[in-house]
Amino acid sequence: MLDRYWFGDVARISPEAPVPVVLVKDEDQRLGGAANVAWNCHDLGARTRLLSVVGRDEPGRRLAALLKKRGVEASLHRDAKVSTTQKLRVIARQQQLVRIDFERPPSSEVLAAKLADFKRALAECDVVVLSDYGKGGLAHIGEMIKSARRAGKRVLVDPKGDDYSRYRGASVITPNLAELREVVGRWADEKDLRRRAQQLIARLKLEALLLTRGAEGMTLFRPRGALSIKAEAPREVADVTGAGDTVIAALAVMLASGLGLEQAMRVANRAAGIVVGKLGTATAGYREMFGGR
Known about the structure:
The protein is of the alpha/beta class. It has a single domain (39-86, 108-290), classed as 3-Layer(aba) Sandwich (UDP-N-acetylmuramoyl-L-alanine:D-glutamate ligase), CATH 3.40.1190. 35% of the residues lie in helices and 27% in strands. It has helices at residues 34-43, 58-70, 108-121, 141-150, 177-184, 190-204, 243-256, 261-275, 286-290, and strands at 2-13, 20-31, 49-55, 73-79, 86-92, 95-102, 127-131, 154-158, 172-173, 208-212, 218-222, 225-229. The strands form three sheets. It has a six-stranded mixed beta sheet with strand order 7-8-9-10-11-12, sandwiched between helices. Helix 1 packs across helix 7 (243-256) and helix 7 (243-256) runs antiparallel to helix 8. It is globular and about 60 Å long.
């Protein structure tokens, strides 16, 4: 996805409707969606390869240019029938006034071609991240998970929707509170939540489920246990956009580096605390996280 930002000032209300009039003074474009995940992995020092589909349009060309500028290796299949997904945010006085989305799902033929690219890329990877935004780009996710697991790769999934059966066999899924509630229903208390999460782990044959809880931190559920940690609060929360992308990216890089799940979760929690202190999609770079070069 391409994240666009229009920054401006509001000094009056429109005479046409009760809405603010924004005088745009600046704009910015950043990597969004799976491109933001790849950017976060890269900035933590990992060699990263992004596989995705974009349109044969200006936003698709801009995404490719941004990825190249950030040093992220990308294999972008350009589909003339697709409109590159864009999210346009209008911001005034550090407040988001409106978000406008542009999107059209890719064709089945294009997705089949990307599946072949995915299988060829597996040999060079230590960890696979599948970021599901419900935009139609992961129609073959079941086969992707099976192929990666057969190749001995850990698979991390950022899920979407109310049917998690398509993620069966993945290593770790990273839903937020609203996403998990949509699948397992409302829980009465922490004990009930743990029971529901562990039932889901058993049903999907997962290694673990990492629940991101915003200001409450995170909880790592495994078949026979759970561990909760508090959020590392920034000096000031500027924007939570893309925080989930940063979490799964940091988790993936740390696991690929040989850390255990609990250690990797703590690093991911720290990374999330850094990016929510920044406006818009952003990264928690290696120096910010660990110092040094």
